[in-house]
Amino acid sequence: MIFNYGFTKIGFYHLEKNIVCQDYHLIKQIDKRFCIATVADGLGSETHTDIASKLACETVIDFLSANITRKTDINNYLQILKNSFNEALKKIEEFAKANAIDIDQMDTTLSAVIFIDGDVFFGNSGDSGVLVLNSDGAYEQISEKQIDENGLVYPLCFGPEKWQFGFKDNVASVLLATDGIFNTLFPYLLNDQEIKIYVPLCEYLMNNDSLNFNKRNIYSVKNKIENFLDSIPKEEVNDDKTLVVLLDDSVKVKRQPDEYYQIPDRDKLKKIREEKYFREAYPNLNLENSDLNKDSEEKTDENGNKHE
Questions:
Q1: What is the distance between the alpha carbons of residues 109 and 127, in angstroms, rounded to a whole number?
Q2: How many CA atoms lie within 13 A of 35 on its CB side?
Q3: Residues 54 and 87: beta-carbon distance below 8 Å
Q4: Could you give the angle at the alpha carbon of 231 between the alpha carbons of 194 and 115, nearest 5°?
Q5: Residue 10 neighbours by CB distance under 10 Å
């Protein structure tokens, strides 16, 4: 059975500046192992983006609900998902025209998934994202951010050439989030590491070993996650926060090696990153005897034994 939760929380910055929440999300359960969901983030520098994000989510959910059933050929799912994005853009353009609003003031990101029998079909526009927990126990970012070389977002209005669609099978759970939460799952200190995802947090949010979803405790699980989102300090996430998780307890999840789940050593990672910065910024600087180098290397005693 697919369990789900979803929350949209106004950000601290928006509260301080008296700006409306510009995120939105929708989830629709079709049957026990068939669920669709969307998240969207109106671009904060523009007006009416809260309307655009809501319209985008509602249009995609309505379109998918009307065009996909258990009898639909699975080979058509991605095309139907693409059509739903086109329909969302059309609805936004129609609304802007009918209300004499500049279409440039209705920019929004959009992420959507169809989750059925352990298969995920996804679409993405902008800098929100989609993350999955595979049946082998590994977490994987399956969406790509649509941004330019300066980090500026390509929202939905840029059209199909900037949208991404894809498919992933053998999935136990799927997470959709706008950038405020999604970026938290990929902390900058892990950028140069083999595992770039903050796995312990993913375990807390997506793995049923942690969530322990069952038919009797759905509301308590949702309350736990909502309390967690409310507890995130503004120093970590100042933007609106939207998080959606769909979890299929029918898909059994294996375990990766124990080290995969360890909490990253923040102090060690900061020293490694600082040393890398100094080496790149000052290539002629001798760091062989620096404190950074000493802290990051193993020490060897007189007998040749290595110590941390």
A1: 7
A2: 24
A3: no
A4: 60
A5: 15
What is the structure's pLDDT at 137? 96
CA distance 214 to 252: 15
Same domain, 64 and 163: yes
Those residues with Cβ within 8 angstroms of residue 278's Cβ, 6 or more apart along the chain or in another chain? 285, 287, 290, 292
Note down the domain range covering 227. 2-260
Identify the CA nearest to 2 among candidates 169, 154, 116: 116
pTM, entire model: 0.87
- Which residues lie below 8 Å from residue 142, measured CB to CB, with a gap of 6+? 120, 122, 130, 131, 132, 166, 168
Work out the pLDDT band at 267, boundaries 50, 70, 90. Answer: confident
23 vs 275: CA distance, rounded Å: 38
Closest CA to 37 of 164, 108, 123: 123
Structure token pair of residue 186? 């990929």
> Do 222 and 276 share a structural domain?
no
Q: 94 and 64, same structural domain?
A: yes
Cα gap 104→108, rounded to integer Å: 10
Strand partners, 36: 28, 114
